[in-house]
Amino acid sequence: MQSELVIYDFASRPDTGAWAIVNDVVMGGASNAQIRKNQAGNGVFSGHVSLENNGGFASVRLRLSPVDISDFSTIHLRVKGEPARYQVRCKSNWGDPQSYVAYFETNGTWQEVVISLGSMYPTFRGNRLDMPDYSGEMLSEVALLIGNKKEEDFKVELEKIWLE
User: Which residue range is the domain that position 96 belongs to?
Assistant: First the structure.
């Protein structure tokens, strides 16, 4: 049994091409975002959340070949961002409508965010679902989302995402 499973280490990848931006424009909103690598080799997810046209979120996601994660209980993110509230989102299967979410806050310094997989709860289009929390058995997608019901600029630097 391995003690750590790296989901994504930005320093070891040449670019951010595996990551996809999904903003509220999919439903008529006007938020914008990008992900790029900085000179330090970290990923930088940044943009502007707009409330125009009933919008209000920006996200970036990484689809994976489905992987068995039943040996792990926590997801870890090494991040740095100005104070803001984000969601980390996981999907068991690409085709599932629901994502399993947990919130974390950045504080302006480098921090290791640790979230219990079993504490992540199911949502769809911002609504909590009456379903069991994340089983933590399979993982096919990891995402970050910002959507705090307010207009805001954001920027968060990502070094690494892993499971323990």
Answer: 5-163
